[in-house]
Design a protein that fits this description.
CATH class: Mainly Alpha
Structural class: mainly alpha
Helix content: over 70%
Number of helices: 14
Bound molecules: fe (ii) ion
Radius of gyration: 21 Å
CATH topology: Ribonucleotide Reductase, subunit A
Order of helices and strands: HHHHHHHHHHHHHH
Shape: globular
Number of strands: 0
Number of domains: 1
Largest sheet: none
Distance between the termini: 47 Å
Length: about 325
């Protein structure tokens, strides 16, 4: 449980003097946006409207999916989008709780300020996704057990390093990759607009995570740094290399059945085979350094890819780590 702060503890709050973290607080105001004034909520979403390209969704680029009737594809892709937005809207509420907790836990003035400002951003993001989901006019699919378990563990945490490493450093870096892919493929102007505004805030939030972890790494010895990196690099590499497989296929086949495709299950093996060929090509593109995932860039910027750590973890030859380090020197 959170122990209540005493007035004496607040009387002379210490500011770390970290320029980057202090600057994030002023940026939270200068780069602020108004959910009612800066977003045109009168733009309608038509029942037949294509909100995002099929190519955004898992299996959406396979020949088998593309050969399906237009109405089926539209339904499946829109259900996939609804599921993602539902995860994001609850993720925003989780982030708001985490930030409120950080603001009450940490003593550093600049860290508290950032957390308080971020909490308000997350409240606005939550509202934006909720409004968009409502306009879509269909109850979204439930969130999956894995996501729920991960959010529950984060909500139960109460150590600042654990909270910040999980939320701002890890989750918000992963979220940046999700936003980029959503924004690249979004077709509906309202979806594009809210994603653009939210991404602007999220890059500040992630920036705090990277700076906080980098500061922690700078002030801790090799054994502690290695143990932190052991805990997080595995997850970051997993997130950076996660590709559509059987779990996503199961969701897609259910949507196809809902859309009236009678032989949906018979399409499964073909969809999986075609997607696997796409996955292989994408993995090759990733290790060639064409597009380094944000989560790997964050790992590098926070100091998790330093040579002594990689040696200790036996990860110096990992292809994606090598690509990340190589791209940063280019
Ligand atoms: Fe957010
Ligand atoms: Fe955020």
């Amino acid at each position: 449980m959170l122990r209540a702060m005493r007035t004496r503890e607040l009387l002379h709050l210490h500011n770390t003097g970290h320029q980057g973290i202090n600057a994030l607080f002023s940026k939270a105001h200068s780069a602020d946006w108004d959910i009612d004034r800066d977003v045109d909520w009168t733009v309608p979403i038509g029942p037949q409207e294509v909100l995002i390209d099929d190519a955004w969704s898992a299996f959406g680029r396979t020949a088998t999916f593309q050969a399906l009737p237009e109405a089926v594809r539209r339904y499946a892709t829109s259900r996939g989008l609804g599921r993602m937005l539902n995860i994001l809207q609850v993720g925003e509420s989780v982030a708001q709780d985490v930030c409120a907790k950080i603001a009450l836990l940490v003593r550093e003035e600049d860290y508290r300020n950032h957390a308080a400002a971020q909490a308000m951003d997350e409240a606005r993001h939550h509202l934006a996704y909720r409004r968009f989901i409502e306009k879509m006019g269909a109850e979204p699919e439930d969130i999956d057990a894995g996501t729920e378990t991960m959010f529950d563990a984060l909500l139960a945490a109460d150590a600042p390093l654990e909270l910040i490493a999980t939320e701002q450093f890890f989750l918000e870096s992963v979220a940046m990759d999700i936003f980029e892919s959503l924004r690249t493929h979004a077709r509906h102007p309202l979806l594009r607009d809210i994603l653009t505004l939210i991404t602007r805030d999220e890059s500040r939030h992630m920036g705090f995570g990277v700076l906080y972890v980098a500061e922690w790494m700078r002030t801790h010895g090799l054994a502690e740094r290695v143990s932190f990196a052991r805990r997080w690099l595995g997850q970051m590499l997993f997130a950076a290399t996660d590709q559509p497989g059987p779990i996503m296929l199961g969701r897609l086949l259910r949507r196809l059945r809902e859309a009236g495709v009678d032989d949906a299950d018979a399409l499964g093996p073909r969809l999986l085979r075609e997607q696997q060929a796409i996955n292989v090509a994408e993995r090759a593109a990733a290790v060639s350094g064409q597009r380094i995932p944000q989560v790997m860039k964050s790992a590098r910027r926070a100091g998790l890819l330093e040579a002594d750590i990689l040696d200790a973890l036996g990860l110096a030859e990992h292809p994606l780590i090598r690509a990340t380090l190589h791209a940063s020197q280019a």
